[in-house]
């Protein structure tokens, strides 16, 4: 009888463990994330609108056959802000720009193939945006950049859109040129603005003088 009782107790404990252990590894994906889970046999995305539900079991990767690894990416819109980026115009005149870009993950499985985690994705997107900024701004004169700065966002966005497809990412709206200013060692923009002010003042003085002359002749 004792052996039977011990056997029943062991069976009960084993049954409890078989139920409890999987629950310990059960993951529920939040509504603003997607988890890309890689097992020995396949890769699946879990979360809202993935078609695979929002729960899975995250057994450690060292578990034979059932072990998995995962990458967590956002499903909501996220931003990348590049501040104080040192750029040059066509004539190698230096200046500094602030850029804001908004993206979303369009293909989570593709994105997971290209990056280790969201931090890695963020870094790679920064590099892509910076490359676009550098290429476009260096093809224009600074005076032109100052005049058409509102149009540059469309140029930035078009230049990165095709590249982003390779990362499973898409821009949500045009990349914005938030600010353009002189660097700490340059007064190029200040000189351009002073020149513009001087030209406006000169035109104003000429116009006033012409008006007075016409009034006297009249």
Please outline the helices and strands.
Blueprint: H1 2-25, E1 26-28, E2 33-38, E3 43-47, E4 55-57, E5 69-74, E6 78-88, E7 94-105, H2 108-114, H3 118-137, H4 142-147, H5 149-165, E8 169-171, E9 176-181, H6 188-217
Antiparallel strand pairs: 1-4, 2-3, 2-5, 6-7, 7-8, 7-9
Helix pairs in contact: 3-5
Describe the structure.
By secondary structure, the protein is of the alpha+beta class. The protein folds into 2 domains: 2-74, no CATH class; 82-186, 2-Layer Sandwich (Tetrahydropterin Synthase, Chain A), CATH 3.30.479. Helices cover 48% and strands 25% of the residues. The chain is built from 6 helices and 9 strands. It has helices at 2-25, 108-114, 118-137, 142-147, 149-165, 188-217, and strands at 26-28, 33-38, 43-47, 55-57, 69-74, 78-88, 94-105, 169-171, 176-181. Strands 6, 7, 8 and 9 form a 4-stranded antiparallel beta sheet that branches. It has a 3-stranded antiparallel beta sheet with strand order 3-2-5, with helices on one face. A two-stranded antiparallel sheet has the order 1-4. It is rod-shaped, with a radius of gyration of 30 Å.
Supply database-style keywords.
Tetrahydropterin Synthase, Chain A, 218 residues, single chain, alpha+beta, 3-stranded antiparallel β-sheet
């Amino acid at each position: 009888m004792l052996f039977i009782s011990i056997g029943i107790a062991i069976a009960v404990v084993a049954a409890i463990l078989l139920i409890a252990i999987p629950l310990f590894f059960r993951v529920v994906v939040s509504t603003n994330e997607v988890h890309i889970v890689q097992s020995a046999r396949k890769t699946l995305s879990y979360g809202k609108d993935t078609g695979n539900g929002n729960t899975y079991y995250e057994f450690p990767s060292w578990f034979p056959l059932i072990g998995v690894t995962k990458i967590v990416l956002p499903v909501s819109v996220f931003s990348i802000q590049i501040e104080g980026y040192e750029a040059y115009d066509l004539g190698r005149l230096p200046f500094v720009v602030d850029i804001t870009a908004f993206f979303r993950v369009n293909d989570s499985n593709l994105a997971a193939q290209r990056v280790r985690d969201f931090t890695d994705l963020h870094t790679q997107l920064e590099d892509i945006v910076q490359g676009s900024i550098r290429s476009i701004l260096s093809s224009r004169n600074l005076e032109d950049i100052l005049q058409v700065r509102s149009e540059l966002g469309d140029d930035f966005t078009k230049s990165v859109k095709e590249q982003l497809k390779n990362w499973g990412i898409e821009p949500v709206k045009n990349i914005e040129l938030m600010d353009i200013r002189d660097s700490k060692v340059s007064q190029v923009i200040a000189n351009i603005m002073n020149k513009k002010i001087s030209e406006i003042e000169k035109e104003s003085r000429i116009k006033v003088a012409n008006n007075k002359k016409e009034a006297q002749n009249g």
